[in-house]
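Quick one, probably user error.
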């Protein structure tokens, strides 16, 4: 056999080896993450639910999904083990990194200070004409064009 005919098979086997190797690494990493779980740890399930670990057994985990509400999950259903600060930030809204806004900050109630406009009151501002214009002139002009108006026999 020629080496050129064997080359595609060698490349295919090499690609399969690399794909299975990366999948095996991901599985090992997920198993290590699940082994790090301890009672009191915050977790996220693969369904996106956040809960606190209460008990751990060989294949299952007892999670407290709400105060006083417990559910049994398979260990494989745990998508991520979260750090305490991240869990508290997501579930309870605690965020220590955000600084409190200064009390000296003034927020305007209108946009006049942003546009640089001088003090113009509502009475001084030009008023827009919001009345509906009569379309009678357009209808009459259209009727004159072909001699027929809407509603007549043979009208377009």
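Nope, works fine. Designed sequence:
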């Amino acid at each position: 056999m020629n080496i050129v005919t064997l080359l595609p098979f060698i490349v295919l086997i090499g690609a399969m080896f690399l794909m299975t190797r990366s999948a095996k690494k991901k599985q090992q990493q997920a198993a290590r993450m699940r082994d790090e779980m301890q009672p009191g740890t915050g977790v996220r399930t693969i369904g996106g639910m956040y809960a606190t670990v209460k008990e751990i057994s060989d294949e299952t985990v007892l999670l407290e999904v709400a105060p006083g509400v417990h559910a049994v999950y398979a260990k494989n259903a745990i998508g991520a083990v979260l750090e305490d600060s991240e869990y508290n930030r997501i579930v309870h809204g605690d965020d220590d990194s955000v600084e409190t806004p200064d009390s000296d900050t003034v927020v305007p109630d209108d946009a006049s200070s942003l546009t640089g406009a001088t003090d113009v009151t509502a009475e001084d501002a030009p008023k827009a004409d919001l009345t509906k214009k009569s379309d009678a002139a357009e209808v009459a002009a259209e009727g004159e064009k072909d001699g027929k108006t809407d509603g007549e026999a043979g009208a377009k």
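The first helix runs from residue 3 to 35.
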